[in-house]
Amino acid sequence: MAIARPIQIRFERYSGDVGLAPAKPPRIVTAEERPALVAKAKRLLKERDAVLVAHYYVHPDLQDLAQASGGTVSDSLEMARFGHEHPAKTIVVAGVRFMGETAKILNPEKRVLMPDLDAECSLDLATPADEFAAFCDAHPDRVVVVYANTSAAVKARADWMVTSSIAEKIVGWLHAQGKKILWAPDKHLGDYVQRVTGADMLMWNASCVVHDEFKSIQLEELKALHPGAKVLVHPESPRAVIEMADAVGSTTGIIMAAERLGAKEYIVATDGGIIHQMRKRLPGVTFIEAPTAGKGATCQSCAHCPWMAMNGLYGLIETLEGAPGHEVFVDPEVGLRARAPIERMLDFAKVHLPTFQGSGDA
Ligand code: 13P
Ligand code: SF4
Description:
Layout: E1 8-12, E2 18-22, H1 34-47, E3 50-55, H2 60-68, E4 72-74, H3 76-85, E5 90-94, H4 97-106, E6 111-113, H5 122-125, H6 129-137, E7 143-147, H7 152-156, E8 160-162, H8 167-176, E9 181-184, H9 187-197, E10 201-203, H10 216-225, E11 230-233, H11 239-242, E12 247-248, H12 251-261, E13 265-269, H13 275-281, E14 286-289, H14 313-320, H15 332-352, E15 358-359
Parallel strand pairs: 3-4, 3-5, 5-6, 7-8, 7-9, 9-10, 11-12, 11-13, 13-14
Antiparallel strand pairs: 1-2, 4-15
Helix pairs in contact: 1-14, 3-4, 4-15, 8-9
The protein binds 1,3-dihydroxyacetonephosphate and iron/sulfur cluster (SF4).
């Protein structure tokens, strides 16, 4: 898995502006350096009473370390749940900022640290809290459901927070009660949830810069070359790509589908970082990254989140050594308001999605 990603990427704002977001790759770790760095990070985690909660998209070094040190590698729902239930005094989140903020909102008494606080998300960046509040104010008859990939201030304005593993269930449940939904920010996930549930959903207009790049025409061509391969798709992908899927799900949902479907080959339409876990769980099975660009492009699969890629071993060690600029802070008043929609989701998950969703010791 490549870790050096583009320094600048483009994203579309809700207002239609196109902005530039910096994403700096972490210091490269060589094979010779790795064992000593991993040992040091493990020792520091223990000494600091810290648990490492990592997302599947971060570098394999951090995924393996999380699993080997009693932490977890998981999707955003389980990251929130695991960090919340773990007794450690410090939670280290290897992921992007909204994941660190969610951990802090749920655990205001704990220290929440991140290897790089500049690790953003295009969906979060495309949802400025003031524009979003105006959108909500204009539609007071709707229940506000926001995706986890948003700032604390946006969550503070919501009735519910959802992740991709539970969005369908929560929106379906609200729809069954006759509620109309205001949905933000991912338009592809919103479109998918709308089609599955039939709910009345008013959508914000933003997308993930990674998943938005998957291309259905190139996927058809790839499928023709691998007729036995099953296609696994994250619902942040465009509709035409989702329609070609054998299974659609959150990152954990994708891994579980691969285990369930029993194929020898899979084409995976999400960040390629997930393939590390898939190979560990299903040795001997072939995983192919879904194509993100057409013929003639220099990049045939650029499906790697530049912000997730900012997490590295050196940054983690610096964080655990107490370097400034790694602690996540959320305004306590905003945090208190943002907590309600997250807890509503976690309470709902206890009843409707009770099974373990992450990956501890491998
Ligand atoms: P999951 O909750 O499915 O892990 O998704 C998080 C994310 O940011 C996907 O791009
Ligand atoms: Fe955000 Fe997309 Fe990166 Fe996920 S992959 S963190 S949705 S930019």
